[in-house]
Amino acid sequence: MKLKFTAIALAAAFLVGAFGFAACAPGKDGAPGKDGINGAPGAPGKDGEDGVGIADVYIDKEGNLIVKFTDGTEKNCGKLPDVGSGYGEQFLYSEIKQNGEVTGYAVRGIGSISAADIVIPSQYNGKPVTAIGKNAFFDCDFIESVTLPDTVTDVAYGAFWGCDGLKSVGFGKNVESVGEVAFAYCTALEKFDCPEKLAYIGESAFVSCTSLVEINLNDGLEEIARSAFSGCIALEKVSVPDSVTTLGYALFQQCFNLKSVKLSESVTDIPEYCFAECSALESVQLGDRVEKIGYSAFFQLAALKTVVLPKSLKEIVSYAFYRLDTFEGVYYKGTAEEWGKIKIGKNGNEFGDGGNDWGKVYFYSETQPAAEGNFWHYVGGVPTKW
Fold first, then answer.
1. What is the mean pLDDT of residues 285-303?
2. Is the pLDDT reported for residue 134 higher than 70?
């Protein structure tokens, strides 16, 4: 891949001079050509030779500066020296400073590299590479795999946004944050193995990663922001670890192939549209601390038949359970009396108006009740009606 920049051309002119070339060399004992400065052949002098100009300048795949002359010959000038611009390097870098001192570097963009499989170095200029900067590899569709070093702690906003050829990412063990839209629209990405120290996944970080089949979230992750995995249409199952305390709005919306979800025991709020339009979703396990289920959280789930709700529940917002084509009912872990104390939105909830219709609500009883009614218990870990 030939990368042509004005800065490179200027550097080329400098290097050509350094290597002892001239844009138009005069013949021996002869006058220089009339248009030699523009690279046209010089007029032959007595016993002289034609002048030679520069036809092209580019950086090859190995990062070498190549100067091509008008006579068809080429000169490999080697690696472009570091003059502060970053050109000639495989990657471009930005300084990270503390108290005026450079403590590390962030990769801020693509340099000379054009390989499909890229490995981010752990050091630059003797300092650690600690971040992948904002939009650093935006729309670099030639990249197929990325390996990050253990020195990297932050993958910033849009770092790999639109890299639609990217299939795999090897995270270093010390990544703590994946920023907003960091891997958005990476439509070939198949798997996300959460780094062991990752605490935060940003808004829309993996939105519309349409080939993403598997995500493995670490115990240590604390927050998954809104729409982080929205539109991941190939995703089939999710288990959110107990360390996660916050789930974002529309987190898994339109994950059309998502069939099962196990949520963190630490989550207290199921936000709006969290599982909306997950048309294949068959089962959801909510943690025992959930207090609120938001607007349209379980909207338009064609395959959902039942859901187990905890005793901790205090509010179910209108339309939380709406347009559930095959829905059979709620398995509630408390009693009918406790259910009656829950604030239930009167619009669009499939199990009844304001909680007064018990036909689709079943109450937990470890032993079979003597009286008839809507009761359930676990059989081999599966909710079962008495």
1. 95
2. yes
Give the type of residue at 335: T
Locus of tokens 């199952």: 237
The Cα–Cα gap between 273 and 248 comes to 9
Strands 246-247 and 223-224: parallel
User: What does DSSP assign to residue 27?
Assistant: P
CATH T-level fold of 236-386: 3.80.10
Q: Is the distance from CB of 107 to CB of 130 less than 8 angstroms?
A: no
Phi-psi map region of 326: left, alpha, beta (phi>0 left; psi -120 to 50 alpha): alpha
Report strand pairing: 74-79 vs 64-69.
Answer: antiparallel
pTM confidence score? 0.75
How much is the average pLDDT of 120-127? 94
Lowest mean pLDDT among 13-27, 66-80, 107-121, 343-357: 13-27
Q: Identify the CATH homologous superfamily for domain 89-235.
A: Ribonuclease Inhibitor (3.80.10.10)
Taking only the tens place, the pLDDT of each residue in 306-358 is: 899 999 999 999 999 999 888 888 999 999 999 999 999 878 776 644 443 43
State how far the alpha carbon of 319 is from the alpha carbons of 5, 64, 315, in Å: 56, 62, 12
The β-bridge partners of 157 are: none
Query: Residue 15 contacts by C-beta under 8 Å, 6 or more apart in sequence?
Result: 65, 67, 77, 80
Do 214 and 241 meet the contact criterion of CB atoms below 8 Å apart? Answer: no
Q: Are 190 and 166 in contact (CB under 8 A)?
A: no
Per-residue confidence at 52, pLDDT binned at 50, 70, 90?
low
Domain ranges of the chain: 6-79, 89-235, 236-386
Instruction: Report how far residue 342's alpha carbon sits from residue 352's, in angstroms, rounded to the nearest whole number.
Output: 13
- The pair of structure tokens assigned to 56 is 């092209």
Q: What is the dihedral of CA 186, 187, 193, 194, to 10 degrees?
A: 40
Contact predicate 9/22, CB 8 Å: no
- What is the rounded average pLDDT of the residues 241-246? 96
